[in-house]
C-alpha cells in the first residue's frame, strides 16, 4: 500500500484504523506522562490515590529532585556521571573500531580457513587446561598464556593448505553478528569470575572503568559492524577508485573520504550504541558494586531500598529516561526511512 | 570490487581481538567450569564431576519451570508485538492523519532503560496508588492482584514487554513496507482485489522474509529477559515468574555455585541455539518459495 494510502478501505474502516492507532499511541504515552507527573508530586499527593493534572489535582514540587541531588537516595550525581563517562567512551571506542572492521569487511577480501578457526579453539581450550593442570598456573594466567599461542598458531595455520571450507567476508560478518545471540548471562557470569581472578593477580577489573568499558565495547561491536557495513556499502565506490588511481593510501581513503561521507551513519550508530550501553543492566550488575555503578543498577535498587516512595522513584526513573528521550528526538529527526532499511536486509 | 592491501589487517584486528577476548575467554572458562563441582561459599576445592551438574539440573523442577516461564513470556510477547506492530505499521504507512506525531511517540519506549520502565510499570500496577486499578474499579473490578498473583504477574510482565518492544516491530515493518513496489498494487487494483485480499495476497507474503528476521531477533532477545522481571517481581510470587537468566543469577550470584551456574548457562546457550535453528529450519521452505 506504499504511497497510495488507505484508498481500498471504506471511510468507516479508515476511521477505525485511525482510532486504533490513537489508542496504541495513548497506551504508549500514558505511562510516560505518569512518571513525569509523579516526579513532581509531594508524598501526600501520591499516597492519597491517583491524581492526574498538575495545579488542578495537586501542587507540583521540585522536592524529589532536590532530594535526589543531595544524595538522600544514593549517590545519584556520581552515578549519573559514571553512566555518562562509560556510555560515551564505550560507544566512541566501539563505533571507531567497529567502523574500521566494517569497512574492511566491505572493501577488502578476507579468507579464513575453518581449520584455522578450529585450531584456535582447540589450542586455546587445550592450552588452558594444560597450563592449568601441569604448570600449576592460576586459571587467568593459563588463559592469558594460551590465548596468544592459539592466536599465533591459528594465523600460521591459515597459510597452510588445510582441508575444509574457506570462510569469506560474509561468514566473518555472521560470526560478529552471532555474538549477539549469546545469552549475556553466559558471558557476564564467566567474565565476573575471570575479572575477579585477574583482580587477585593485582590488576583490578571488577568495579573499574577499564573492565566495564571493555566489556561494553565487545558487547556493542556486533551491532556497530552490522549497521556500519550498510552505510559503507552505500558509499559510491567510484570515489574511492578515483583516489586509488592517484595512489592515495588506503588509510587516507578511509579517514579522508569514506568517514566524512558516512558521518550521518556513524552518528546514528554512535547514538544507538550509547542507548544500549546506557540502558544495560546485567553486565553492570555483575561487574560493578559501588565506585563504577551505573544508573540502571541504582534505579533498580530504588524499589527495594526504601519502599514505595513513588515520588522519589519517579524522579530517579526520569533521570535515567530523559537523556534517552532527547536522543529519541534527535534520532527520529535523522531517521530517514532509508537509514534503517539497509540494516534489516 | 574487492581490494587486497595488507592494511586491511590493521582495520579488522582490533575488533576481532576485543570480541575474541571477551567472548572466547568466558566461553572456554565456563565450559570447563561446568564440569566441576565448584563453590565459593563454603569454599570447597574444585572437583571434576563431568556431566554431574548437567544431570542435576535436568532433574531440577525449578530449571524446567524457568524454561517454561521464559518460553511463555517470549512467545506470547513476541506474537503480540508482531501483530500490534504490523497493524500500526500498516496504518502509519497508509498515511493516517497525524502520522508524523505518532512516529516520535511510538519510538520512545524502545530507547528507555528496561529497569526504569519496569519501575514505572510497578507504579501503574500498584493496587492503591496506581491509576490502572482506579480505572478498572470504575468497571467493578476492584484491587486486581496484578503483581502478587502468579498468572497476573506473568500477564503484567508480558504487557510491559509488549509496550516496550512493539515500537521495534513498527519501525522495522515500516521500513519493510516502504520497499514494496507500487505497480503490484496498481495491478491488484485493476483486478478489483479488496484491501483484505491485497494484504494476504501481496503485502504479507512479500514481507515474510523481513517478518521472519524481526520475529527471530525479538525471540532471541526475549529469551534473555531479566531486567524487567528483576524489578517488577524479582521472580515472585514464589518462582512463578522466574526466567532463565534470573534463575542463573540467583544460583551464581546469591549462592556462588559456580559449576552449577556454568552448566546452567551452557544449557541456556544450547536451548537458544536449538530454538534458533528450529525456527530457521521451519521457515526456510516458505522463504525460498517466495524468492
From TrEMBL, chain B:
<keyword id="KW-1133">Transmembrane helix</keyword>
<dbReference type="GO" id="GO:0005886">
    <property type="term" value="C:plasma membrane"/>
</dbReference>
<feature type="transmembrane region" description="Helical">
    <location>
        <begin position="152"/>
        <end position="177"/>
    </location>
</feature>
<keyword id="KW-0813">Transport</keyword>
<feature type="transmembrane region" description="Helical">
    <location>
        <begin position="198"/>
        <end position="220"/>
    </location>
</feature>
<feature type="transmembrane region" description="Helical">
    <location>
        <begin position="104"/>
        <end position="125"/>
    </location>
</feature>
<dbReference type="GO" id="GO:0055085">
    <property type="term" value="P:transmembrane transport"/>
</dbReference>
<feature type="transmembrane region" description="Helical">
    <location>
        <begin position="263"/>
        <end position="283"/>
    </location>
</feature>
<feature type="transmembrane region" description="Helical">
    <location>
        <begin position="66"/>
        <end position="92"/>
    </location>
</feature>
<keyword id="KW-0472">Membrane</keyword>
<feature type="domain" description="ABC transmembrane type-1">
    <location>
        <begin position="67"/>
        <end position="279"/>
    </location>
</feature>
<keyword id="KW-0812">Transmembrane</keyword>
<protein>
    <submittedName>
        <fullName>Sugar ABC transporter permease</fullName>
    </submittedName>
</protein>
<dbReference type="InterPro" id="IPR000515">
    <property type="entry name" value="MetI-like"/>
</dbReference>
<keyword id="KW-1003">Cell membrane</keyword>
<dbReference type="Pfam" id="PF00528">
    <property type="entry name" value="BPD_transp_1"/>
</dbReference>
<dbReference type="InterPro" id="IPR035906">
    <property type="entry name" value="MetI-like_sf"/>
</dbReference>
<comment type="similarity">
    <text>Belongs to the binding-protein-dependent transport system permease family.</text>
</comment>
<feature type="transmembrane region" description="Helical">
    <location>
        <begin position="12"/>
        <end position="32"/>
    </location>
</feature>
